[in-house]
Design goal:
heterodimer, A: 520 residues, alpha/beta, Alkaline Phosphatase, subunit A, 2 domains, 9-stranded mixed sheet, 4-stranded antiparallel sheet, 15 helices, disordered N terminus, B: mainly alpha, two-stranded antiparallel ribbon
Chain lengths: 520, 496
């Protein structure tokens, strides 16, 4: 039995194609406004912005990350692990970076990093698991939810897909780590996870799988549907991931740490044109849970901070060199900070509010939100009070970075939160102007070859690609830095089956899509 | 539960993210079919390969063809009693388990011994046969967690595992109390460093949150009180000792009771809390029956735990022999853990080889379950989290490797499935169509469709006519392997 008979590609393809014959006769320009293209745009994402989440598992000690260098209470509370003022790197008159954070300091100083102090939520939970669940589900401390905020956001991009159908491209990629609640939506997992793109491809593309038919509404039927969906996603996405990895590159040398290598893969896949909107990486295994002998200027915590700082600095250097920096932003998060008072074993117990970092060239960087931690006004357990709700950062990511409508952001975050000013406006969503870049294909319809023409008003990084109607990559027509001027690029169509295709021009952060019909 | 009702889950204070996480695809309807009364075979739910297979798959790491046949020659209750028989303790992996820890430690030697311990335990899982014991030992390992990154002395892991095996379905309260002074636990959760005047609340918090009550059933002040009450223990050599000078003998108020509490009182007070029995009952339910607990059944199990003074064995006998457990809606409704998967392959295909056990340890690790090394103190969350776009194809490749005796990278393995021997266990081995059906029914907990059966049939015959099929045919061995590989690649093979 043919695998295609099992995989129900046909449903969605049918849905799109049924509307197409009429559209095919329209001038291509009009196509940009059609409902079909609208649906397609939402699938491939009008915005090609990417968000990177870096999870610091275990609860990062905020006070030893950004050190309150003028606060005697800090030095009294931490006789063995405090960071001496003289060793810190200058941030403000009252705050110093941990000495290993030269990378983050450099990013901050050049405006590519923002700091938000005192982030947590009301009635903080000091359990790793519950705390992490709250952060990834974006819920209040007493609400239990089975979907993640990223999963809910990505679900809005796929809302036109029939149930059980998976998006044409992976919407999120997790590098390493077990699959996460963060990417769960009511449609199931909204992403894939792997450690290495090539290994992933080798693993997946072996042997045919005999998928069965429809499933009963029983517990076992539901589990089977879940396994099948994962199997189909792996099969469909493995090829895309490998192609992206092959097309992609790195232009910086990353440190040989776990986090750095994960971020290297992110840069490689984004530069290779993978359509994922969100990447999730992290320092795993509760590494930041420094109950004992956490060290000060050196030691366990210092080396974790160094891993973060060096990896992030290299990553941003790399994506700048690759010319994709404007499309990438991200944030760090950790389930909680740690107690002000060090414990008897030269470590710190679970605490509450802590700083987090928002990074990227399009971040309103070099800014520090929030006051210095107030060590005189602690909660009954001796923990820091909240300055900002973590969802104010999420709201900024949704509203400013992904530029989704306010009502939709409210649905993703379950209610409204005032966003912090963290990302450059206007967002990456550009209205498609049909005349933009004078993008046009001749002839259209075409059979053997078409000529795609476009005009650049100024020098820019350009990528021109051919996609099929499911948004899958067919070929890269050109890619690179081009100076201002008019271009005509031939595209060979002889090997393609007849049908409708999409050509996609990316100029810097702008994306324009057009249809091209191939006839035989 | 309607999926739009998810917010009301907050009404159940014990529902942790882990449980609600599983509710991702719309909730299937759970009809309560049968309660805890004994399962009596009927025409509707006969004692056959499906029901007996369900019992053996859930209580062991899958099962052999012979075990199912044996079970069918007995009554369900007799089989449950067999599964719960006390077995003699196995020989320890080596005499080093009694060696005093070296100071400073010999890291290379310890790493080697840790690997020996993993291998030894995996072999027990594969070879213990019809018994619940090894699966239950794993239940405790995943409950009272310890990892080899933090606890680097293999002797301590052995001591803890010996305790699990000896107290495996004994008294839960006694086991919990034992864990307070267990050397591996003292080190893992820092209670070794929890001293009067210098509290370390790591263990006390996890004891309440993850080991006995669950979030929402105690306050931060109970954590503080329990931390003080649990002071005084210290690991010395291979044992732990109670040192009165390190103990905080002051008055504490813990879960509403005030006194100069120590370890024993702490455990007593916890087990008097009404949530404690429900906490264990729910965890047992999720482990043996289904990830979404039926709260009515959980409540009845909890009452039985209390009625039996927290003796586990009678409660397990009730649950595993109950009409509820045998409701067909649960057959195949769990996702195999990496151990169910890997050890299950060894057992279903009866591969017994020392190298196969090492391979299985590595394979389970690659599938995100390394024995003695849970990712966090919460253990492996399991269920759907086992299956990702990475681990699912890896599972398929691992199973194929075992069948072919060759890794997917091409390396030869010193063992493989005896395909003809496996086929001969099926009376239908020379009737191709029936053989495919019988093999699929044995290997899968979930029935395949007619289309899938046709596809498997085609895999076996490879284009030759059906009447030519015989396991004496020259290519039979290779074709049986093709059939088996096609079956283990099915999404259905992930279910148990």
């Amino acid at each position: 039995m043919e695998r295609r008979n099992f995989l129900k590609y046909s449903l969605k393809a049918g849905l799109l194609l049924s509307a197409l014959p009429a559209l095919g006769r329209f001038p291509t320009r009009a196509l940009a406004y059609s409902p079909v293209m609208d649906r397609f745009r939402r699938l491939t994402g009008q915005s090609d912005r990417v968000f990177v989440l870096i999870q610091l598992q275990g609860g990062n000690d905020g006070l030893n990350t950004l050190v309150p260098i003028e606060n005697a209470l800090y030095y009294n509370a931490r006789p063995t692990i405090a960071i001496p003022k003289a060793q810190t790197l200058k941030l403000t008159d009252t705050l110093g970076w941990h000495p290993v954070l030269s990378g983050l300091k450099a990013l901050y100083d050049r405006g590519e990093l923002a700091i938000v102090q005192g982030v947590i939520y009301p009635n903080p939970d000091r359990s790793h698991f519950r705390g992490t669940d709250i952060w990834v589900t974006a819920t209040d401390a007493d609400v239990f939810l089975g979907t993640g905020w990223i999963g809910r956001y990505l679900e809005t991009l796929a809302e036109d897909l029939p149930p059980g159908e998976i998006p044409p491209e992976p919407l999120a990629v997790q590098i390493g780590g077990a699959s996460s609640l963060l990417l769960q939506s009511e449609r199931g997992l909204m992403g894939i996870s792997f450690r290495d793109p090539r290994e992933f491809y080798r693993l997946v593309t072996q042997g045919e799988i005999g998928f069965g038919g429809s499933l009963p509404d029983t517990p076992a039927g539901h589990e089977l549907l879940f396994v099948r969906t994962v199997a189909q996603a792996a099969q469909r996405y493995a090829q895309q991931v490998r192609q992206a990895a092959e097309r992609g590159a790195n232009r910086a040398t990353y440190p040989d740490t776990d986090l750095a290598q994960k971020l290297r893969i992110v840069a490689q896949l984004v530069s290779g044109g993978l359509g994922a909107k969100v990447y999730v990486v992290g320092i795993e295994r509760n590494a930041f849970d420094t109950h004992a002998y956490q060290g000060g200027v050196t030691g366990v915590h210092a080396s974790l901070l160094r891993e973060l700082s060096d990896a992030l600095k290299t990553f941003l250097d790399d994506v700048k060199a690759l010319g994709i920096a404007d499309r990438i932003a991200g944030m760090t998060f950790s389930e909680f900070g740690r107690r002000v008072q060090e414990n008897a074993t030269a470590g710190t117990d679970h605490g509450t509010a802590a700083p987090l970092f928002v990074f990227g060239t399009q971040v309103l960087g070099g800014r520090l939100h929030g006051r210095d931690p107030d060590l005189t006004n602690l909660d009954p357990r001796g923990d820091l009070l909240m300055e900002y709700d973590y969802r104010q950062v999420y709201a900024a990511a949704l509203l400013q970075w992904f530029a989704i409508p306010r009502t939709q952001a409210q649905r993703v975050l379950l209610r409204e939160f005032a966003p912090l000013p963290l990302f450059q406006s206007p967002s990456g969503v550009e209205e498609i102007q049909p005349w933009e870049f004078n993008l046009e294909a001749h002839p259209n319809p075409a059979s053997q070859e078409a000529m795609i023409a476009f005009t650049l008003p100024e020098a820019a990084a350009v990528e021109l690609a051919l996609l099929d109607l499911q948004g899958r990559f067919v070929s890269c027509i050109l890619s690179g830095d081009y100076s201002a001027g008019s271009y005509r690029v031939p595209v060979r169509l002889a090997e393609l089956p007849s049908g409708l295709y999409i050509y996609r021009l990316r100029v810097g952060r702008r994306t324009v899509l057009r249809a091209l019909e191939v006839v035989r | 539960m309607q999926r739009r009702d998810f917010l009301t889950a907050a009404a159940h204070p014990l529902r942790r993210g882990m449980e609600v996480l599983q509710r991702v695809l719309a909730q299937p309807p759970i009809r309560t079919q049968g309660g805890l009364e004994p399962y009596v075979p009927s025409s509707e739910i006969p004692w056959d390969e499906r029901s007996a297979g369900h019992l053996l798959r859930r209580t062991g790491f899958q099962c052999t063809k012979g075990e199912i046949e044996w079970a069918l020659s007995r009554s369900p209750q007799e089989v449950v009693d067999t599964l719960l028989q006390n077995l003699p303790a196995p020989e320890p992996p080596d005499s080093w388990v009694n060696e005093e820890p070296r100071r400073p430690p010999d890291l290379a030697l310890d790493a080697q011994r840790m690997a020996e311990l993993q291998w030894w335990w995996l072999r027990l899982m594969a070879e213990t046969g019809l018994s619940l014991r090894e699966k239950m030992v794993f239940f405790w390992h995943n409950h009272f967690t310890t990892d080899k990154d933090k606890v680097r002395t293999p002797q301590y892991h052995y001591i803890q595992h010996d305790t699990f095996r000896r107290m495996v379905w004994g008294n839960i309260r006694a086991l919990t109390q034992r864990m307070v002074s267990d050397p591996a636990m003292l080190i893992y959760l820092d209670n070794n460093e929890n001293i009067v005047g210098n509290p370390n609340e790591n263990f006390a918090r996890e004891l309440l949150e993850l080991f006995t009550l669950g979030v929402g059933n105690y306050t931060e002040w109970d954590v503080v009180a329990a931390t003080r009450a649990l002071t005084g223990w210290r690991v010395i050599g291979l044992r732990s000792v109670f040192i009165p000078q390190r103990f905080d003998d002051g008055i504490k108020t813990f879960l509403g009771q005030t006194g100069p509490w120590g370890t024993e009182d702490t455990i007593r007070i916890i087990f008097e809390h009404p949530e404690c029995s429900r906490f264990f009952a729910r965890k047992l339910y999720r482990f043996f029956v289904y990830m979404e607990p039926d709260e009515q059944i959980v409540q009845q199990l909890a009452q039985q735990l209390i009625a039996n003074n927290f003796e586990l064995k009678p409660v397990l006998r009730t649950l595993l022999g109950s009409a509820h457990f045998f409701a067909p809606q649960f057959y195949g409704a769990q996702i195999k853990s990496p151990l169910d998967f890997v050890v299950g392959l060894l057992r279903q295909f009866e591969v017994r080889h020392p190298e196969a056990y090492s391979y299985a340890v590595r394979a389970a690790s690659a599938l995100e379950l390394e024995l003695l090394n849970p990712p966090t103190v919460e253990g492996w969350k399991g269920h759907r989290l086992w299956i990702t776009s990475m681990t699912l194809p890896l599972r398929q490749r691992i199973a194929e490797a075992l069948i072919d005796g060759r890794t997917f990278g091409g390396a030869q393995l010193p063992f493989r499935v005896d395909a003809l021997g496996f086929a001969r266990r099926f009376a239908s081995h020379n009737q191709a169509r029936q053989f495919v059906r019988d093999v699929a029914r044995f290997l899968l907990a979930y029935p395949i469709t007619k289309e899938q059966e046709d596809w498997l049939f085609a895999e076996l015959l490879q284009g030759s006519p059906e009447y030519e099929w015989s396991i004496a045919a020259p290519n039979a061995d290779a074709r049986i392997r093709l059939l088996l590989k096609a079956i283990v690649r099915l999404p259905e093979y992930q279910l148990t």
